[in-house]
Amino acid sequence: MRRALKEFIWFYNEIRVHQNLGELTPMEAWQGKTIADVRRLQDEQPGQWSSALNGLLVGYRVRC
User: Fold this and answer.
1) What is the Cα–Cα distance from 48 to 64, expressed in whole angstroms?
2) What span, in angstroms and rounded, lies between the C-alpha atoms of 57 and 6?
3) For 61, which of 5, 19, 36, 50 could close a Cys bridge (C-beta 3.0–4.6 Å)?
């Protein structure tokens, strides 16, 4: 259970974008990034598919 919670928290904070945070992840918002910073970073480096909880949560990680 602890491993599953740790995976979920990682996914929630670093992969999943949040509408109330202006399409930023909580980690990006905490670091003070703007959506312009994130888009610039997306142009500079490739992303990767990430998953958690045996594939139940899937997202495209580009930004952190």
Assistant:
1) 11
2) 13
3) 50
The three state secondary structure string of the chain is CHHHHHHHHHHHHHCCCEHHHCCECHHHHHCCCCHHHHHHHHHHCCCEEEEECCCCEEEEECCC
pLDDT given for residue 63 in this prediction:
57
The pair of three-digit structure tokens given for residue 18, joined into one six-digit string = 């949040």
- First CA to last CA across the chain, in angstroms? 26
Whole-number pLDDT of residue 9: 92
Read off the pLDDT of residues 4-61 as tens digits, 9 standing for 90 and up: 999 899 888 988 888 899 889 899 899 999 989 888 888 887 777 787 787 778 877 7
